């Protein structure tokens, strides 16, 4: 069985679901190690140990350069462990780190992975989730990026002490890409889109008012998503966009309101467990993939549903 | 912007010929390869062509000596995607095609594309889409930056080029922030669908494109060993592919005033609340 190395840019004592899934997957391999490109608190180290991680490699950097530090941390940890499997998050930044190191060390990279066997056969989604493909490395280390919501989060029972190693890295201040400015995004109290059990999404049909969508989302404890028509119109942040060029989600329940169901939108949500669609137009393509379709006005249906949920919960 | 002083830019824009996303797409159960009939220029690469042509237009135009070379690696039909890029304003085209390229994974693809960029020579900027719509890996641009030793400016939401400094600035989302990143040329730039609005070629542009040349190249022409690419030169192998059963339409009801309640009944039945 190959040894596994997991990479995180940041790791706190309250890890995201995606991070916990990566740790769970790694715990099934030899000598699970973790590399983190910033400081890891004592409490966060305890979380790592509870997943059976035996070794932590860290180094932080203040340099205003982009990507270089993370690349150096992962590369150094890879050299130190000689891992046969490197596990990364599925976001663009993490993919690119894996991609560069796969080239640098003539290894293999597989993205959008939903599972990996002990002999490194990866199962992944292809063609916007319409195919499930098995692929394996034929040379070098496998860099695999794991789709969120793929694995049952399960801390390992055995508590092995965690060894920590501070990596000594060369200064990366001569790197090619500089961070000239950084703007914080508005924080939200709602669950993160990629991790939410329920997503309520609105499209052009909300006609500028996300109120009913947000209200139903709050009644359900759901995340709020949107079509590109709605984000392009500026009614909601681009971060909420679901689809080919936005976020891919696979929640238990996806409620689509005032969205026609274009192929690029379906690409981001069609592997949801249940889909409910509300649309005025009986011919909207979204009805072809909905478990429950409601031909009606979202401005009436959503508030009624939100009120009914609150009534039943009370 | 001092137009006269702009040293001509040599830009390669990478365009991929992919199965049209509007149709059903299939992976052959025998060869485990994607059926590539009905292919078109990847719609996300239109944003790359637009970004490359706009940089030229904002800096003295093609009359100033800038070049935008639309390049692809792919089978016979891929030349059509290069032609579409020429209609959108690219100045010339390259089509790398060789039987030995079949079955290339991203590591092998980036090797071939980097060799193509080296073959062109003295390239200042490589522009790509944010992702191919068939492989959907979003890793080839970063791999190219690694191989070429160019700065990596990827997933750009917005692009600005400072001709005097020969410096690019992009906006990119990262963790909980939107960053402004800058780098000097040479660079690999990948653009998202937020970066611009790709133009629709008019009749004049279509006629003008007919006069532009597309050069066909094989591996020997760019000096790349056939064993370095294709299935042999790849580090991954696909060993199985199954189509997920198509989703079926469920019940569709008309709202006659109680559909919100029906929605909640459905949630309760499925134990979703
Ligand atoms: C390169 C590229 C990438 C793209 N990426 C994405 C992506 O990632 N995500 C994405 O979503 N799209 C994407 N798109 C856009 C996509 O093709 C569609 O244009 C978009 O999804 C349409 O959004 P919509 O369904 O909200 O709007 P429309 O298609 O205009 O549909 C609005 C729907 O609302 C219904 N409606 C109107 N009023 C009401 C009401 N009061 N109550 C109920 N229903 C109502 C209408 O019947 C209609 O069906 C992309 C396009 C391109 C070219
Ligand atoms: N075979 C190819 N020919 C030309 N460009 C490509 C090819 N493969 C990938 N690219 C470029 O790389 C980008 C990202 O592709 P990918 O990493 O496959 O998602 C695409 O948008 C293209 O610009």
Automatic annotation (TrEMBL), chain A:
Subunit structure: Heterodimer of an alpha and a beta subunit.
Function: The electron transfer flavoprotein serves as a specific electron acceptor for other dehydrogenases. It transfers the electrons to the main respiratory chain via ETF-ubiquinone oxidoreductase (ETF dehydrogenase).
Sequence ranges assigned to domain Electron transfer flavoprotein alpha subunit C-terminal in this UniProt record: 193-270
Family designation: Belongs to the ETF alpha-subunit/FixB family.
Signal sequence region: none
Source organism of this protein record: Glutamicibacter nicotianae
Pfam families in the cross-refs: ETF, ETF_alpha
Domain Electron transfer flavoprotein alpha/beta-subunit N-terminal: 16-171
Cofactor(s) the protein requires to work: FAD
Protein name per its UniProtKB record: Electron transfer flavoprotein subunit alpha
UniProtKB/TrEMBL annotation, chain B:
Domain Electron transfer flavoprotein alpha/beta-subunit N-terminal residues, every copy: 31-226
CDD domains: ETF_beta
Keywords, ordered alphabetically: Electron transport, Transport
InterPro entries per the UniProt record, alphabetical: ETF_a/b_N, ETF_b, ETF_beta_N, Rossmann-like_a/b/a_fold
Entry keyword Cell inner membrane: no
Record-linked SUPFAM superfamilies: Adenine nucleotide alpha hydrolases-like (SSF52402)
Cofactor list: FAD
Subunit structure: Heterodimer of an alpha and a beta subunit.
Similarity-based family: Belongs to the ETF beta-subunit/FixA family.
Function, in words: The electron transfer flavoprotein serves as a specific electron acceptor for other dehydrogenases. It transfers the electrons to the main respiratory chain via ETF-ubiquinone oxidoreductase (ETF dehydrogenase).
Record-given protein name: Electron transfer flavoprotein subunit beta
Organism: Glutamicibacter nicotianae (Arthrobacter nicotianae)
Upper lineage: Bacteria, Bacillati, Actinomycetota, Actinomycetes, Micrococcales
